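Bench notes, afternoon.
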Amino acid sequence: MEELQKRVEQLEGQLAELTLPDAASSSAYTDVAEREIRMQAQEHMRTQARLVEVLTSDRDEWKMRCKRLEAELAELRAASDRQPVELILDDGSKYYGRVKNGRPHGPGKQTDMDRHKKIYEGQWADEKYDGVGVCYHGDGETKKYDGQWTAGKYHGQGVSYDQNGTKEKEGQWVDGRMHGQGTSYRANGKMEYQGHWVSGKYDGQGTQYDSSGSELYRGEWREGQMHGEGWISSITWGGSKDTGPLLDGQPHGQGISYHQNGKRAYEGQWRCGHKHGEGISYHDNGEKEYEGGWENGEWHGQGTASCRSLGPVFEGRFARGTATCGTFYSGCVAEQQWRAGQAIDIHVEWGLLADCGGIPDWVPNI
């Protein structure tokens, strides 16, 4: 347009220099000049439009060519990434599989430098185990973990194994630790625990089993410890086997304990791990030892004490495991009405020595 303007100004200057003989001739000459100028201007504008059209077409063609070349380059790069390659990783191990930007990404296999022992086989992302894969113990054959990974850690559903190939844990994992529903196993393959986990510890509802697979405890857990309400089926507690409800890992409520020979040792009420309330204790031959009240694991309140095979020898009141007042028996015969501070009749003493094999601990020192 600047070129056209200059041309118009040039023509106007030439027109001004012309000397016409009269006004009529001057007007006619001016009309001719103006028409010529307009025609030249229009032609110039058409030329400019054609030039713009050509340039626009060339630009669009180059854009399309660039896009085609970029697509071809992306396809070539993708094809290159899909081709397995062999790399040496920072730790000196070898990698064979797909890559992205020169780093393990996609399916691949990691081995030792000699490629004799497998380390990991599965999915990768940005040079880390990510997706589904298997890692191996040092022998390169025995699985260590088989399952889902995220950023190089056990994450998702998976199974871990010991060096013998026996299952250790199976279930949900988060950041390399059991978290959620899962099961742990003993070395003999039997279940050890089944239930909920938090950060690698029993937490929530779960069941513990003994080495034979029999149920030990079913109930609530917190940070790996029995916590809250639960039920013991067969668990050692203070040297005996117990069954019954628990509170925070201790017998609480109506329960039963057993001698090591399997005979019943106690049946009755418990509170926070102690015999407390009404209950019956038994000798290891299954015969009654005491029936009555208990407090914090000791005979307390109204109760009856017995000797082996002889039945009751005392009925009365007890305090902290010691008789305070009541009746001594020999067989079914009442021998003496007695209270604390009173001397025990000599016949009663002889009877205790003969029937119980000595003076029982619950008889006070007079």
